[in-house]
């Protein structure tokens, strides 16, 4: 059993041992910062007033700029990922919007016909932060992510109307990678050139010195982790071990985890007989998997054991496939209006709802059985948001995005609900 917990959230005394043995000795982190920044679409009981007119079609402007650049026409617009838009830039943009209000009588932008609209269920204002990154959305609506403040990178958790800084004391860099169904947050902390794995579970923070970073987590405290040598492995935070999933009879073992859900790990496997293999496994089950020809796995595995695949050659097209076999991969398709580019999946749920981003078109997309692939930005009502990027979708079909919110005047995390 390795040393798995070596940090006291109170920042005073180190605690040796495992997550299971140390949990009674932990106290709630004493550096939590709480801000009244989370509010629903009603905004503390008062309905959000509809916009008097619609903002410009920023997504369209971005697309035009990209098309100009692709055709060789001069353009000063720079292709920047949505999460890289800083608070200072969006604040300046808000000031310009205030100076040049919408033209009176302009018609409101409406969602695409024959597709369900998405309304803002929750908004978390992050105007006090810069370089905001949304990472994960929990079943109950909890949001985890990270952002810059006062020169430090902070891990943040929004639950029940409160935004909490869950960064362990003594660390000036913290990044969130994932959150499990029970609300366990996982990622990494760092200082200088050193990074270590980090989880926040049931109000307590844990730092793992024998792990460089955590990439995925489930409710059983099983994680995909980066080892000190840079390779990936499965880590059991409950006892501080690196379990090995294998089929001894077939001479195969899962050695490189790729994706994780609440029950199983999916990854590449090594077999004594040779050849490229994959496996879906847990402590007591091992299923050998052969991928469809020409397709490569992503890190997205739904709770229904559906794996999101991409073109092995280009990665520009996405598919949904049951790891247990029996059906051909489902081509997720493309959005309407001839929107070219690379369709990069970001998250999916068991109902087959998949969300992702498109470059260089600068739009985020959502795919459902009912509506196919749609430009998510065109479905949000009211449409008063800019710089949209998508982070996650939960089992209820709620979608986590981040954007510049004209209502709050800064960057925000938003939970969108269909209907």
Features:
419 residues, mainly beta, Methylamine Dehydrogenase, Chain H, six-stranded mixed β-sheet, five-stranded antiparallel β-sheet, 3 helices
Write the layout of secondary structure elements.
Elements lengths: L18 H4 L11 E2 L2 E3 L17 H14 L15 H13 L18 E8 L4 E8 L5 E7 L2 E8 L2 E4 L7 E7 L5 E7 L2 E8 L2 E5 L4 E5 L4 E5 L5 E5 L8 E3 L4 E9 L4 E7 L5 E5 L4 E4 L5 E7 L4 E6 L6 E5 L7 E2 L10 E7 L5 E6 L3 E6 L3 E4 L4 E2 L3 E9 L5 E7 L4 E9 L1
Parallel strand pairs: 3-28
Antiparallel strand pairs: 1-7, 2-3, 3-31, 4-5, 5-6, 6-7, 8-9, 9-10, 10-11, 12-13, 13-14, 15-16, 16-17, 17-18, 18-19, 20-21, 21-22, 22-23, 24-25, 25-26, 26-27, 29-30, 30-31
Describe the structure in brief:
This protein is mainly beta and 419 residues long.
Describe this structure in words.
The structure is a single chain. By secondary structure, the protein is mostly beta strands. The chain has one domain (19-418): Methylamine Dehydrogenase, Chain H, CATH 2.130.10. 7% of the residues lie in helices and 43% in strands. It contains three helices and 31 strands. The protein has helices at residues 19-22, 58-71, 87-99, and strands at 34-35, 38-40, 118-125, 130-137, 143-149, 152-159, 162-165, 173-179, 185-191, 194-201, 204-208, 213-217, 222-226, 232-236, 245-247, 252-260, 265-271, 277-281, 286-289, 295-301, 306-311, 318-322, 330-331, 342-348, 354-359, 363-368, 372-375, 380-381, 385-393, 399-405, 410-418. Strands 2, 3, 28, 29, 30 and 31 form a six-stranded mixed beta sheet that branches. A five-stranded antiparallel beta sheet has the order 1-7-6-5-4, with no helix packed on it. The longest helix has 14 residues, at 58-71. The protein is globular, with a radius of gyration of 22 Å. It starts with 18 loop residues before the first helix and ends with a strand. Residues 1-113 have low confidence and may be disordered.
């Amino acid at each position: 059993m390795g040393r798995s917990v070596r940090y006291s959230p109170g920042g005073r005394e180190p605690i040796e041992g495992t997550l299971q043995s140390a949990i009674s000795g932990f106290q709630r982190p004493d550096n939590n910062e709480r801000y009244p920044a989370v509010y629903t679409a009603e905004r503390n009981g008062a309905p959000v007033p509809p916009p008097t007119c619609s903002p410009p079609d920023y997504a369209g402007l971005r697309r035009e700029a990209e098309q100009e650049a692709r055709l060789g026409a001069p353009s000063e617009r720079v292709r920047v990922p949505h999460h890289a838009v800083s608070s200072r830039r969006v604040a300046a943009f808000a000031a310009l919007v205030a100076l040049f209000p919408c033209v009176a009588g302009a018609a409101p932008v409406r969602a695409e016909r024959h597709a369900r609209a998405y309304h803002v269920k929750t908004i978390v204002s992050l105007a006090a932060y810069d370089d905001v990154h949304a990472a994960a959305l929990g079943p109950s609506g909890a949001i985890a992510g990270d952002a810059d403040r006062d020169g430090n990178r902070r891990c943040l958790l929004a639950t029940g109307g409160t935004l909490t800084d869950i960064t362990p004391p003594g660390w000036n860099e913290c990044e969130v990678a994932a959150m499990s169904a029970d609300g366990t947050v996982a990622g990494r902390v760092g200082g200088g050139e050193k990074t270590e794995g980090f989880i926040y579970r049931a109000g307590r923070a844990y730092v793992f010195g024998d792990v460089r970073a955590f990439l995925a987590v489930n409710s059983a405290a099983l994680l995909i982790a980066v080892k000190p040598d840079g390779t990936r492995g499965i880590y059991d935070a409950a006892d501080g071990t690196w379990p090995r999933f294998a089929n001894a009879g077939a001479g195969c073992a899962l050695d490189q985890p790729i994706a994780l859900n609440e029950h199983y790990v999916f990854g590449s496997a090594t077999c004594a007989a040779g050849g490229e293999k994959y496996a879906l496994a847990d402590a007591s089950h091992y299923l050998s998997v052969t991928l469809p020809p020409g397709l490569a796995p992503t890190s997205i595995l739904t709770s229904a054991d559906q794996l999101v695949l991409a073109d092995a050659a280009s990665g520009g097209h996405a598919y949904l496939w049951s790891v247990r076999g029996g059906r051909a991969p489902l081509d997720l398709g493309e959005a309407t209006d001839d929107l070219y580019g690379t369709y990069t999946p970001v998250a999916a749920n068991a109902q087959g709802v998949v969300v992702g981003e498109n470059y260089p078109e600068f739009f985020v997309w959502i795919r459902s059985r009912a509506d196919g692939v749609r430009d998510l930005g065109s479905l949000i009502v009211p449409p008063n948001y800019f710089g949209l990027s998508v982070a996650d979708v939960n089992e209820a079909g709620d979608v986590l995005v981040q954007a510049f919110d004209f209502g709050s005047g800064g960057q925000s995390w938003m939970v969108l609900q269909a209907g």
